[in-house]
């Protein structure tokens, strides 16, 4: 299976969500939160499409890549799950490094918060990412869906109705 940035993000959010997504059950199209995030990314930096390249490589899609500075620009709605965003861009950096980009960097941009986080390649990222890839493959290749782990973030998840259909209030 080709791992994408979405797989990495879902691994860090919820392994059940990861398994469902990887096994063809996609719910993002029903989520207002996902739609709002896409709208923010599409309308905040209007000149990005002219200045930067969209890059698709090894199953990942980077919307804004500054080839001159070897920098990924990733736009996010909120920093509530910034550890997940950081993991996702670390995976992107790993893929770029694998393709001989010497010093890839990433800027996570939160326009609503007027905040940025910076992530630069270092060799420890490789070990971290390879560990995630092994665990992601183990999870998505399970025969059965992982059990529901109730988390605070569940209510905002696009899979909420799916996961909680049989749950008592």
Description:
The chain is α+β, with helices and mostly antiparallel strands and 169 residues long. It has a single domain (5-163), classed as Alpha-Beta Complex (Lambda Exonuclease, Chain A). The chain is built from 7 helices and 5 strands; from the N terminus they run H-H-H-H-E-E-E-H-E-E-H-H. A hairpin with a 4-residue loop joins strand 2 (60-66) and strand 3 (71-75). The radius of gyration is 16 Å and the shape is globular.
Which features does this protein show?
Lambda Exonuclease, Chain A; 7 helices; 5 strands; 17% strand
Rg measurement, Å: 16 Å
User: How much is the average pLDDT?
Assistant: 87
- How would the global form be characterised? globular
CATH architecture term = Alpha-Beta Complex
- Percentage of residues assigned to helices: 40-55%
The CATH topology label is Lambda Exonuclease, Chain A
Euclidean distance between termini CA atoms: 37 Å
Q: Based on DSSP secondary structure assignment, what is the total number of beta strands? A: 5
Question: Which helices and strands, and how do they pair?
Answer:
Layout (H helix, E strand, L loop, with lengths): L4 H9 L1 H8 L9 H13 L3 H4 L1 E5 L2 E7 L4 E5 L6 H17 L6 E6 L4 E6 L2 H18 L19 H4 L6
Parallel strand pairs: 3-4
Antiparallel strand pairs: 1-2, 2-3, 4-5
């Amino acid at each position: 299976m080709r791992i994408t940035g979405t797989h990495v993000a879902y691994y860090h959010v919820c392994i059940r969500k990861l398994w469902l997504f990887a096994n063809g059950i996609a719910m993002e199209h029903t989520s207002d939160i996902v739609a709002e995030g896409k709208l923010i990314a599409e309308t905040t930096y209007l000149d990005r499409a002219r200045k930067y390249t969209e890059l698709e490589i090894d199953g990942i899609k980077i919307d804004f890549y500054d080839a001159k500075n070897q920098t990924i620009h990733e736009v996010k709605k909120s920093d509530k799950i910034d550890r997940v965003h950081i993991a996702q861009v670390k995976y992107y950096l790993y893929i770029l490094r694998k393709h001989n980009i010497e010093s890839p960097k990433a800027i996570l941009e939160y326009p609503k918060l007027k905040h940025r986080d910076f992530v630069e390649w270092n060799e420890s990222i490789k070990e971290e990412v390879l560990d995630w890839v092994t665990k992601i493959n183990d999870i998505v290749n399970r025969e059965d869906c992982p059990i529901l782990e109730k988390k605070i973030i569940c209510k905002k998840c696009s899979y909420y109705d799916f996961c909680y259909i049989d749950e008592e209030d």
